[in-house]
Specification:
The complex is a heterodimer of chains A (366) and B (437). Chain A has 366 residues and is mainly alpha-helical. Chain A is built from 16 helices and two strands. The longest helix of chain A is centred in the middle third of the chain and has 27 residues, at 205-231. Chain B has two domains: 46-162 and 309-391, 3-Layer(aba) Sandwich (Rossmann fold), CATH 3.40.50; 166-304, Response regulator (Rossmann fold), CATH 3.40.50. In chain B, α2 (60-79) packs across α12 and α3 runs parallel beside α4 (124-136). The chains are: A mainly alpha (366), B alpha/beta (437). At the A-B interface, α1, α2, α5, α10 and α12 of A face α1, α2, β2, α3 and α4 of B.
């Protein structure tokens, strides 16, 4: 256990150093994009753990992001809480919401669960327009974020935002990585692979499912607070259904159940649209074409990844480079495919079950 | 095994950190030495400006024409010598009407592309996501495409342009009060600042005793049957709508269905006859009915702040039609195109006024000095040191055979409850023959 913790901490420190160096080298807008990537990494990682490890699905994590973002905005505006207190508090509030939803969700599976969480994604953001006095209605709540004065007057705010969000993201990832490697993570995999067998061995399936929802919602809440801190505005227009879908897409693209995959997913979501627009406009395409090209590129990337690497980008990298890399650097509490045979519980898991979600749906309908 | 592994990991980490620290230090010391460029986005030959626009997504139909029309006018100006020899380059990025994306694309424009100013950023919720950022970065944020009263004060670098919803509400309210005395009035409004600001303006003019019912809607719920029924039950004879075109059309059809036939008074936002007629036909078709859009829009009362499209004798309409036909002929010549060209004209006016060596602060003081003539607008602007709102007046129009026809004079007012709605006695100066300010 301690070795795992140490390894994750070292990895986080190295990643932190790389991020710091990048943030200093890159221009202020790239710093802003780094903060955005950090937001999506946390949100996607939380969803990826839910789907890849516990075998549940959520199309409503954008709603938990909204909960976290509004919590952060209200705490900063009315109580003037500092950011290091706001982030955990927002995560905790979203976790509470996740617990409530999780209790209901643990009774559902497959398409029914997807439908119930879809409802959240639609309903929660419209609460903001329902109670404009508290949540600022359609205009939302705007925040002021400034870098600490001792960094100097010319220090770019976006670099400070990138630092804060990256530190928060790294802490969240270390915690998730340890959780995934812990008893809880193993239990999640057990209920994902075969809930009946897991229950027979004495695991409380319902409680574990609720717990997975709580963890996932906490990540989404933290990501929401980070988004509020980055964009300095919280409004219902930011938490549309397409955000929830984008998170799901990012998780699938990157590789379900893999934290490294969450990074790939976030990179695709944040960087592909700007990159494609830049290329399109620099090649003199008309704005109408250039504006629609990112959506097309996004679709092409999704299709290509699903055909070439059905396990997502991280799964594909693992397959290509698998033999060359030490397993514990690339695999984190991964789904079944690349695991050493010894880790599969023989007789409980059929070898052809590779897609946790599909598998779960199958069980939900039998 | 474990011990050696740990040592190796730590050694790798330490090396990486050391290398990165060295890299970081060297870059930051060299970065401070370079001289800053004089004014971002301004070169000897070019003025670079940017914008956020809904080019995709639900707000794109109609609104996506605006930025292309502005660009058409800039091309016209560039072809005729530019502004003091500088050509205007207009980069407008898609935010899909999502405030998070607005925050991102505006930072891209300011931090990476180094635009001189943000021009005509579209939408209230979207622009609110960047207004504080732009003001803290001291980037001119001119002629925002939103009638929110929020830009009028408190943001030194931001300027509105079109008439705000409070003023428009007061002008419509004054008309309703004088023309429909003794009739029962109902309000139908969008439940956000657009609708509530409009209702605020209406309430300043229409006596509360005359208002029989106030019904609001949220844009994500298209079932407005209950609101229509409530308005009918209250005996409403004149319904004033602060609604976007889709919901104006839905209310009209719902009223038809329940046999309620009030007079419609609609904000300029929700009353473009071309958009409205198309929506009415499309919605009716979904319900299995065939209607003629122009018949249903007949008689709708609205307000206008630019010359009517049908008024081809107006020199501004003639100028913008000419520019449209040369540079933007693929788009229909409708209200959105007129808007885009008219706001672009105002920007060129302001740039000319900012002088041969424009700075960011110089553009702001050029607008604040109050000397911008009204251009294509039917009433003057209120720009001053203390007021950054925009147009002060509008006329009342009635839709006849699919076009808005102006009724009577132009009215001006302010945004206060007591400020009178007065007739504008000036006349609109004609468009310059060159087409350039």
């Amino acid at each position: 256990m301690t070795m795992t913790l140490l390894r994750h901490l070292v990895a986080a420190i190295v990643a932190g150093a790389v991020i710091w160096a990048l943030s200093v080298q890159l221009n202020a807008f790239r710093d802003y994009q780094m903060a955005e990537i950090a937001v999506y990494v946390v949100a996607i990682a939380g969803l990826s753990v839910l789907i890849g490890l516990s075998g549940q699905i959520s199309i409503g994590n954008g709603a938990f992001m909204a909960v976290g973002a509004y919590a952060a905005a209200l705490l900063m505006l009315h109580l003037n809480w500092p950011v290091w207190a706001v982030f955990p508090a927002s995560a905790a509030i979203a976790a509470g919401a996740g617990g409530v939803v999780g209790v209901a969700a643990a009774r559902l599976s497959g398409p029914y669960l997807a439908g119930a969480t879809l409802l959240l994604a639609v309903a929660i953001p419209s609460l903001a327009t329902r109670f404009p006095g508290v949540f600022g209605g359609d205009q939302g709540l705007s925040l002021t974020v400034t870098a600490p004065a001792r960094l100097g007057a010319t220090f770019p705010t976006t670099r400070w935002q990138a630092w804060v969000c990256s530190v928060a993201a790294l802490i969240a990832l270390v915690l998730l990585a340890n959780l995934g490697r812990s008893r809880v993570g193993r239990n999640w995999r057990a209920i994902r692979d075969d809930p009946v067998a897991a229950a027979l061995t004495g695991l409380n399936v319902a409680r574990l499912r609720v717990l997975a929802f709580v963890v996932s919602a906490a990540c989404a809440g933290l990501a929401g607070a980070m988004l509020a801190y980055t964009t300095t505005l919280v409004s219902p227009g930011s938490f549309t259904l397409s955000l929830s879908i984008a998170l799901l897409t990012g998780a699938v693209l990157g590789g379900l159940g893999s934290l490294a995959g969450a990074l790939w997913g976030a990179l695709v979501i944040v960087l592909v649209p700007t990159y494609v627009t830049d290329v399109a406009t620099s090649h003199g395409l008309s704005t109408t074409v250039a504006a629609n090209l990112p959506i097309a590129a996004y679709g092409v990337v999704l299709i290509a990844v699903m055909i070439l690497f059905p396990d997502g980008i991280q799964g594909g990298l693992r397959r290509l480079a698998g033999p060359l890399l030490p397993a514990n650097l690339t695999r984190l509490a991964s789904p079944d495919r690349q695991q050493p045979p010894g880790e599969l519980s023989d007789g409980l898991t059929s070898p052809d079950r590779r897609q946790p979600v599909g598998e779960h749906q199958e069980e939900g309908t039998t | 095994m474990n011990g050696s592994h740990r040592t190796r990991m730590l050694a790798v980490a330490a090396t990486v950190i050391a290398a990165l620290v060295a890299a970081g230090c060297s870059s930051s010391s060299s970065g401070g030495a370079g001289a800053a460029p004089a004014v971002p986005g301004i070169t000897k030959t070019q003025i670079l400006i940017g914008s956020h626009q809904p080019l995709t997504g639900p707000a794109a139909p109609g609104y996506s024409e605006i930025s292309a029309a502005s660009n058409a006018y800039f091309q016209y100006v560039n072809a005729h010598g530019g502004v003091y020899g500088r050509k205007i380059k207009y980069t407008y990025l898609d935010d899909a009407y999502d405030p998070s994306k607005t925050a991102s694309v505006v930072r891209q424009l300011v931090l990476q592309d180094s635009v001189y100013a943000i021009f005509d950023g579209l939408g209230t919720p979207t622009h609110l996501a960047v207004v504080n950022y732009l003001n803290s970065a001291k980037v001119p944020d001119v002629f925002i495409a939103s009638g929110c009263d929020c830009w009028a004060s408190g943001h030194p670098y931001s300027f509105g342009w079109q008439i705000d919803y409070i003023r428009e509400g007061k002008i419509l309210g004054a008309y309703v009060k004088s023309h429909f005395a003794g009739k029962k009035i109902g309000f139908f409004y969008q439940n956000d600042e657009f609708g509530t600001d409009g209702v605020k303006g209406l309430s300043y003019e229409i006596p509360a005793s005359q208002v029989a019912s106030k019904q609001s809607y949220v844009p994500i719920n298209v079932n407005i049957g209950p609101q229509a029924a409530a308005l009918k039950a209250a005996g409403v004879q004149v319904v004033v709508c602060y609604s976007i075109p889709a919901f104006t059309a839905l209310l009209k059809l719902a009223a038809l269905k329940i046999g309620w036939n009030p007079t419609f008074v609609v904000s300029s936002v929700g009353a473009d006859p071309i958009t409205l007629g198309g929506l009415l036909q499309a919605f009716a078709k979904q319900g299995g009915k065939t209607v003629v859009g122009n018949q249903l829009t007949q008689g709708i009362i609205t307000a206008g702040y630019l010359p009517t499209l049908g008024n081809t004798g107006n020199s501004w309409i003639a100028l913008f039609k000419k520019v449209h036909d040369t540079y933007d002929a693929k788009a229909p010549f409708d209200g959105n195109v007129l808007y885009g060209e008219a706001v672009a004209y105002t920007f060129v006016q302001a740039m000319v006024k900012a002088g041969k060596n424009p700075t960011r602060a110089g553009l702001v003081s050029a607008i604040e000095s109050g000397g911008l003539s009204q251009g294509a607008a039917v009433a003057p602007y209120d720009y001053s040191m203390t007021d950054h709102g925009g147009m002060m007046g509008a006329y009342i129009g009635v839709i006849k055979n699919g076009v808005v026809v102006q009724q009577g004079p132009v009215w001006t007012t302010d945004t206060t409850p007591g400020g009178a709605v007065t007739q504008f006695t000036g006349t609109q100066p004609p468009a310059p023959a060159s087409g350039m300010p």
